[in-house]
């Protein structure tokens, strides 16, 4: 029953978190409802024990933390990290295309997207728009059309008899979404379409001119419980909004005695090197301000631990040979500790050991993932955070299928179970360093 309530809330979150900007806005709304206080990007922070705080960067990354009543930050912070971005198709700056009587938009592939599933989907469009108001000043607002307005039709098999054997996708020419039939000789002005949408979503604004945008197409099919007994969750953006939501729920349920923190970074799917990415200054600069001085920061770093939560590859029954024989995670068999000897994951024996202790206390099963030795291994914000801050880190994730597809699949018990362990981690009263 506990997982059913958790999953209903997760599905509601996924419905509104259509871009990193919308995900952060949704998380901020939940944080403020729970009494978290927004902090300015500049100016002094007057932090008080027992208070809860948050800050955002670029509107697409977030840090939320609790100043513990019994464990001050310098005594060690319990941290969870995730990322807000997912592979997608982003609209180019000058996107208008007129081909064979159809109006299309040029797109750029963001991240390592699995492109085949993007065909024949009802697509909508969302993101952030900058515009000039009547006084000429720069303003920004979020937009989400929230209805099907585009599609990328497949080429019929009659015109490509080898499609099921060797069809290749050219991202420059083959995945341009169709928005409309061309009504006349004039190509529609995309920025004017955005201006009209801004007026619909923000009627109080007076948009004079759209200046620029960061917009992504997304699948309008709602997240759903799937399976004979609803064993699965099917949705877009499970990688990694599932972890963002799980970490947020755990933080909201923290008892406040220990100092704890959640960071959700943007741009993980493209390397994390940005102002709001894990390879940028967001986390370390926040920790420095929390600690108060360099001495406090050194103590905080040495006594803290980070759990990097990012989905893991479940063993696919149709492709079981793609996994190491002893390390094939099964959906709904527990969160997965991710290990790589070449440091593509940041897990070590200490961080994995503490997680196993916490999971045992919650009676949550634990699995491990090690990539086949003859295959390349992906990575996460874990090694980036560990290398950039010096904080000991564990990489863990919920097992999923179809990672980086437009629709991914996870077990309906795993996220809730991970959330239980993360909550216990946030409330863990002992030292985070081994005796």
From TrEMBL:
GO terms for molecular function: aminopeptidase activity; metallopeptidase activity; zinc ion binding. The keyword Hydrolase applies. The keyword tRNA processing does not apply. GO terms for cellular component: cytoplasm. InterPro entries: Peptidase_M18 (IPR001948), Peptidase_M18_dom2 (IPR023358). Its EC number is 3.4.11.-. CDD domains: M18_DAP. It comes from the Bacteria. Its cofactor is Zn(2+). Keywords: Aminopeptidase, Hydrolase, Metal-binding, Metalloprotease, Protease, Zinc. Belongs to the peptidase M18 family. This is M18 family aminopeptidase.
